[in-house]
Amino acid sequence: MAEPRWGGLEALLRSRLPKGELDPALCAVLEAASPGLALLDPSDRLMAWNPELARICGPTLPLRPGMAMAGLIAPDMRDAAAAALDAGRRVEAALASAGSPQVQIERRRLRENGALLRVAPVATAEQNAQNAAAARLQAVGALAGGIAHDFNNLLTAISGSAEAALARDPDCDAAPELRQVMESAGRGAALVRQLLAFARQQALNPRVVELNAAVSAMAGLLQRLLGSRIRLAVDLEEPGRRVRIDPTQLDQVIMNLALNARDAMPDGGALRIATRHAVVLQPEPLQQEELPPGRYAVLEVSDSGAGIPADILPRIFDPFFTTKREQGGSGLGLATVHGIVRQSGGFIAAESRLGEGTTFRIWLPRHEGAADAIPAASPAAAPVPPVSLPQPKPAMPSAAPVLLVEDEAPLLKLAERALRRAGFDVLSAASAEDALDLLEQGGPKPMALVSDVVMPGMDGLALASRLRERDPDLPVLLVSGYAEVALGRDLEAERLKLLPKPYGLADLVAELRSILPRTHAEVS
Q1: Counting beta carbons within 10 angstroms of the beta carbon of residue 370, is it exposed (0 to 12), middle (13 to 18) or buried (19 or more)?
Q2: DSSP class of residue 422?
Q3: Half-sphere exposure (CA, 13 Å, Cβ side) for 59?
Q4: Distance (Å, whole) CA 69 – CA 130
Q5: DSSP string covering 36-68, please?
Q6: What proportions of the chain, in percent to the nearest 5, are helix, strand and coil?
Q7: Which DSSP symbol is given to 488?
Q8: Model confidence band, residue 404 (pLDDT cutoffs 50, 70, 90)
Q9: CA quadruple 496, 497, 500, 504: dihedral positive or negative?
Q10: In sequence order, what are the residues at sequence separation of 6 or more whose Cβ sits closer than 8 angstroms to the Cβ of residue 237?
Q11: Residue 9 near residue 116, CB atoms below 8 Å
């Protein structure tokens, strides 16, 4: 094993600890260090430590000034560890905290000023395999997210063209075929949402919900879907816990797991959905991930099916992996569940034994505040909404234009046509740089910006920031196939509205009107 690079840190410690005193620069080094580090006095007692060491030791082994170094090590290993450290060797040992991982401990003397203690978990072969699998899933997720973004652009162009054609003549001979195009685009959009869910980039609308209430609301629907040969049992722990998640996506998670269980019990059986709570004190391995310490609400879905073979279990959350290819399985059901749970800040794992069934267990961070009010159902949730493009309205001669920026030429034309049909003047550009050039060459000041987010060169977020330098109150509508969390920005705090792709042309007009001042919304 290669020697750790102590040199610069050791020199700093020796120069900053002439009398065993702590120094702000030294504390900053400890805070930033990735392994667990502690400063020891000449008697090998703790003087200071970094957050990583406290995390490794966990809440059952609280650190305190003056604590003996030996107190960190499991009692049955202290003598052997002390002998190795006194000889200047690195040693592997267990910590004194219950259930702690095996760690590697090293101590470096700092002349007469004490010592520096380094503690780092030992990566096992199983952990290395889990890390490799997690990295593989992350890479596939990034690829899926990129494909989904491009596919969203195509679907928006396809559905928008069909929508515009139907709006011009709803009773034309091609109307049935155009409606079929829109329905197919809707199914394609559902597939894209699954890809984005796996990639953790779908647009979510999280709210604080009562987990028990959400499960109870799904129970009646599930019983009808499962059929008479499967017995459904719901076991809800009281008092119930609250979590912050998109309620629609939570329903999808429960539905996907229930249907997966149904398929595992073709001859009938039992399905149990339960809730409970958990307080995790130490990091716990979960198949390919690690469950960090915290307070969780737990959702369990268990079936009495045939179980999952051990060689297949590690792959069940992989996208496009399915054992039901002949039955039309897409391999995205469990990948979607995994993506939704992880994007919501939770964790999921499965345990199974052949002949005994399977249990999926989901940990969601508990929310201590009150649950949010349930909003009224939105008609926009229909799979294929009716075509209702706004009728043409005369534009005001003095009205400022909408600045429309989209790098996909078909989408730019469709959006421009829809906005003009709704009565807006439009100044269109194929890139953020072109939009800025138009304004710098004397173009009229826009009343609003409608821009794609992901574009070659400057993106839509940067363009909005540049335009807000000139007009801080400029209304901005961004369109993207990525979720807000994937963009890495708090759009609401920045007064930016996001319209997910694929979108309907009527939705584009409605969202634009919703962000305009009342006077502009009324005249357009």
Answers
A1: exposed
A2: T
A3: 8
A4: 32
A5: EEEEE-TTSBEEEE-HHHHHHH-TTS---TT-B
A6: 40, 20, 35
A7: T
A8: very high
A9: negative
A10: 212, 274, 275, 276, 277
A11: yes
271 SS3 class: strand
- How far from 307 is each of 100, 259, 265, 352, 488, CA to CA, in Å? 31, 15, 10, 5, 39
Residue 501, amino acid? K
φ/ψ of residue 200, rounded to 5:
60, 40
Q: Which spans in 170-275 are helix H?
A: 175-198, 211-226, 247-263
Phi/psi for 5 (5° steps) reads: -85, 90
**Other beta carbons less than 10 A from residue 482's beta carbon:** 24
CA distance 156 to 505: 9
| C-alpha torsion sign, points 307, 312, 314, 320 | negative
404 touches 426 (CB < 8 A)? yes
CB 40 within 8 A of CB 115: yes
**Entry pTM:** 0.47
Which helix (H) or strand (E) is 79 found in, with range?
helix 78-86
Considering only the C-alpha atoms of the chain, give the largest distance between any 2 of them, rounded to a whole number of Å. 93
What pLDDT does 264 receive? 86
Burial class from Cβ neighbours inside 10 Å (0-12, 13-18, 19+) for residue 115 reads: buried
Residue 419: count other Cβ atoms within 10 Å of its Cβ.
Answer: 24
Q: Categorize the per-residue pLDDT at 3 as very low, low, confident or very high, splitting at 50, 70 and 90.
A: very low
- Is residue 182 helix, strand or coil? helix
Question: HEC string of 21-34?
Answer: CCCHHHHHHHHHCC
CB 278 within 8 A of CB 296: yes
pLDDT in the model for residue 229: 86
Tokens 């319209």 appear where?
499
Instruction: Give me 358's structure tokens.
Output: 């399977």
For the record, the structure tokens of 209 come out as: 């919900």
**Residue 467 pLDDT exceeds 90:** yes
Q: Spell out the residues 6+ positions from residue 498 whose beta carbon is closer than 8 angstroms to its own.
A: 203, 477, 478, 479, 480, 484, 491
**Rounded Cα distance, 385 and 282, in Å:** 49
The total number of residues written for the chain in this structure: 524
pLDDT at 90 over 60: yes
DSSP 372: P
User: Who's near 480: CB < 8 A, 6+ residues apart?
Assistant: 149, 452, 453, 454, 460, 487, 498, 499, 500, 501
Q: Is the pLDDT of residue 399 over 60?
A: yes
List, in sequence order, the alpha helices (H) in 237-303: 247-263
Nearest to 415, CA basis, from 41, 153, 182: 153
